[in-house]
Amino acid sequence: MYCSIAFPLEVYQTYTYSVPESLSDKLKAGMRVKASFGSRAQIGYCIETMLVLSSKPSYKLKEISDVVDSTPIFSEDLIKLIKWISDYYLAPIGICFRAAHPSESGFKRQQFCFIQEGESPENWPDIPAGGLSMINFVSLPDLKQKKIKEGLSSGKLFIDNIFPKVKEARRVAAVKILNTKLPITSRQQDVIDLLLSLDTPQEEIRVIQKKLKCSSSVINKLIENGVLTKFEMEVPADPFDHLVAERKRDVKLSVEQSDVIDNIEKHFGTFYPVLLHGITGSGKTEVYIELAKKQLETGKQVLILVPEIAITPQIAARFRSTFGEQVAIWHSQMSDSERLWTWTQIQKNAIRVVVGARSALFAPMKDIGLIVVDEEQEASYKQDDQVPRYHARDAAVMYAHILNIPIILGSATPSLESYYLSALKRYKRLELNQRFGDAQLPHVHLVDMTEAPRQGLFSQELLAALDKTLKDGKQAIILQNRRGYNTVMVCSECKQILQCPSCSVALTYHKRLDKLMCHVCNATYPLTITCPHCGKQTLTAVGHGTQKIEEELKKIFPDVRVARMDMDTTRTKHAHARILNEFEQQQHQILLGTQMIAKGLDFPNVTLVSIMNADTGIGIPDHRASERLFQLIYQVSGRSGRGKYPGDVYIQTFSPEEPLIQMAAKLELRAFYNLELFQRKTLQYPPFSRLFLIRVSGKNAREVEAAIGRMYKALVTKISPSCCLGPAPAPIERIKDKTRWQILIKADRKNDPNGNRTAGILIHVLKNFRQQEKGVKVLINRDPISLM
């Protein structure tokens, strides 16, 4: 028996190994195996098993040494999807498999040093029988480290990978009944009644407080009086523990919603890509829930992808209120134990609905009947910061094709690509043009800040509307898409902007830290007024971020509670859910934030939305900048008036005649799309071409420029120069002291419809480039979302 293994290394191929008889019954495709690769043992992914080989190799095949898993961690269909991601996004296949299997879920790799067989352990007193971890190795004295390194070089020692398990459970403070015959108060009796209602009369203290809304003093008194006893209990690491349960809604679907559901239900069991274009507040989530019900009734599972962690808790709570404990969430802020708990529950088939960010695409679901990609236009579905640089929406469409099931791409502001594909009939476009229930679209007010009377950063018109909203007991959402206090420091003498020493971006002042921060590398610097360019003490803070808006709001409305939601306030675990839960329970009257509050949130008591500066984003050197700005304004406007109360939107701008802002204010979506598609076609940008971004980076600016010049010469021998833009410095030329240059390649849809011909050329050029250029790093990003 033989197997094909993908190792999580920078290699673009798989390797064939023989399987010893002792392991042949254990091994199946989708499992991890241990095998020798080069000079050390590696963990790889078995993606195929073969009884015979099509051709006999000229060399002796190595054998695998062990099978890591007892059951496959990847299904046959997931293996097909991951292979497609590797091929399409030009990514090493083993790294794609590693990205798809959450290493945090109990499989964090640690390197250990071991003694070879036949070598006396007495010669190596610092290496225990279980191996010496690299963490303990670096703490040894230099002479002992040197001896171990010599042992590794001579082959007397070897390195192996160990995968210590993460605990599925966590230990929590709990109570159980000790004596029920003692006198207690009525509030204390509620605690006892809750415990007696359980199969085992014991419960976590935090859960009791959450269910009964009682203080800790009630439980502490019962412990003091000997009614209860306190102990430590192990509980599953359920990621839903921190969420406030949503009350189950009694929903009556509209005719539009019912028609959409009927249309999609007819195509269950077939590949049927649907663009569900519904205006904000039209009830797309209710459509998802009703279709999920129908799938679960037939024994199928449902995968719901959402773009932001901020959206995950609210939509997950909606599904949880309908389907109970059959629902799981999946996103990057989950702990190791939560990921492992969720992973194992899905593998056991106890979970039928998974709601999560892009990595949820790889959840080990065995029988998916429907995939939903909510807010499909969002850029966060594209993974740009690491390999594989895949787009979860497009990968989800391919996954649905592999599974032969329907997929819904939902949005109030579809991406131009999806909108265009629906016009070509590649996707079925279904529409929801009415708001759910009796809700009406908000009334939009465009405020010309060049003429409007102002108080600080707020127009008087906005403040008057905000004051009335708060007095009426309603809530408001305010968008300022810049975090920090002041956005830039400018020299009043030489007009230079103070930039990060390591990156080509302006430093932002954060008042709470009293420091300047780079929002790219996160480095901080002391606040200064001395200009590094002219040497004069004339640096002045200008611009305004969320911190400054929050400060002004508290001055104008001192008795109003303001919740700020941006990268600075959501760094801690569950911060997104906590802020949104508190706002939903009306503990705050105003929610102020960046773009993370712009979409997917549903608060019926919000009747006012304000965009502090709609001009942010105009003039950015990126072909998607206009599309992103339009979608942001349109989406955040849709947070207002979603309940029974009418809503208003105030858009403050210094460019009221700008066509993009005019169309967004009038909610003229089709007019904007027609204009943008015309411009994209003229310039041959997507959806009328396929883009490949090639970026070369390194510490030495001259080497980077020379290297990308040589790459350009190699490319234009195979690709027309008219299709290659550049080479040129990236718009953000330096990040973390590395200079970045790039080439943008447009693959014409007529001559290269899928971009596969161009991709083949790039793989060949990249292989040669990496062999010749050692001082720089090169990446290829297919279908890039951002060119910055």
CATH class of the largest domain: Alpha Beta
Estimate percent helicity: 25-40%
**Strand share of the residues?**
15-25%
N-to-C span: 49 Å
Mean pLDDT across all amino acids: 88
Oligomer: single chain
| Tally of alpha and pi helices | 22
Q: Which blocks of ≥5 consecutive residues have pLDDT under 50? A: none
**DSSP E strands, number:** 35
For the biggest sheet, the summary is: 7 strands, parallel
CATH superfamily placement of the largest domain: P-loop containing nucleotide triphosphate hydrolases
Care to describe what's here?
The protein is an alpha/beta fold. The protein has six domains: 2-100, 3-Layer(aba) Sandwich (GIY-YIG endonuclease); 110-162, no CATH class; 169-236, Arc Repressor Mutant, subunit A (Orthogonal Bundle), CATH 1.10.10; 255-432, Rossmann fold, CATH 3.40.50.300; 443-484 and 544-678, P-loop containing nucleotide triphosphate hydrolases (Rossmann fold, 3-Layer(aba) Sandwich), CATH 3.40.50.300; 689-782, Ribosomal protein S10 (Alpha-Beta Plaits, 2-Layer Sandwich), CATH 3.30.70.600. The protein is 30% helix and 25% strand. The protein is built from 22 helices and 35 strands. The strands form nine sheets. Strands 14-15-13-16-17-12-18 form a seven-stranded parallel beta sheet, sandwiched between helices. Helix 9 runs parallel beside helix 10 (284-297). The longest helix has 17 residues, at 756-772. The chain is globular and about 85 Å long.
